[in-house]
Design goal:
4 strands, alpha/beta, 227 residues, 2 domains, TIM Barrel, elongated, 44% helix
Length: 227
């Protein structure tokens, strides 16, 4: 395991797997079943390619008309192809290629939050089924790259990483999914289930390799130990 890592990193990772929490998880999880049921992460759509395909689809008839009229000037034809005003006219299904969802404004670091956090508590919030409805709607005509953030999105627990959670739901619809997290809630069980759900990427909020500076950003002297 971890053959593709440098020796010192491989040694550290193997040591982590020997920790009691990982050993307990391995004893209670059928890893072969997890592997068999794991969803494959879709590739994120290219935003440039997606935009070009949309313009081609919407403006190709206009360009064909110009060619039929004898227009051969490449600049004029390119202008017709790249005419966003014409492409968007009367179209209510412009493809969303990137969708960021703030699942919650709550954070596991409460009451002290990171230095740059500007999230404020709101009285009303969306439920998991509401988020699923949004994701399902935006997959037509092109499944977007979905970025789940907060607050701390993993506070939603299995609603995010479970078999019927948001990640697996979006992946089954063809969406590549990324989670932005402070990592405090990533236990061995959560880590295994994030892989199983088909998560494409994970962004962890570590802003500096210097422990003292990161502690200041976290506004907590032992902030790094919480991750």
């Amino acid at each position: 395991m971890f053959e593709h890592y440098l020796p010192k990193h491989r040694e550290r990772l193997n040591a982590l797997l020997e920790q009691p929490d990982w050993q307990e998880t391995f004893a209670n999880v059928d890893l072969e079943r997890v592997k068999a049921e794991a969803l494959n992460p879709p590739s994120p759509p290219s935003q440039l390619t997606g935009a070009a395909q949309y313009l081609l689809q919407r403006n190709s008839e206009r360009v064909k008309q110009l060619l039929g009229e004898g227009v051969t000037d490449e600049e004029k034809l390119l202008d017709a192809f790249s005419d966003w005003e014409t492409a968007l006219s009367g179209d209510e299904r412009f493809p969303i290629l990137f969708l960021g969802l703030v699942l919650t404004l709550d954070c596991s670091f409460d009451p002290v939050r990171c230095l740059y956090c500007n999230q404020a508590w709101l009285l009303k919030r969306m439920e998991l089924e509401d988020w699923k409805a949004v994701i399902e709607e935006v997959t037509n005509p092109t499944p977007p790259y979905i970025y789940l953030t907060g607050g701390e999105p993993l506070l939603l627990g299995e609603g995010v990483w479970g078999d019927d959670g948001l990640v697996a739901f979006a992946v089954r619809l063809g969406c590549a999914v990324n989670i932005n997290t402070n990592a405090e809630l990533i236990t061995p069980k959560v880590a295994i289930n994030l892989v199983k759900s088909g998560l494409a990427r994970i962004h962890i909020s570590l802003d500096s390799h210097e422990a003292q500076l990161q502690a200041k950003i976290f506004r907590h002297p032992n902030g790094l130990k919480r991750c």
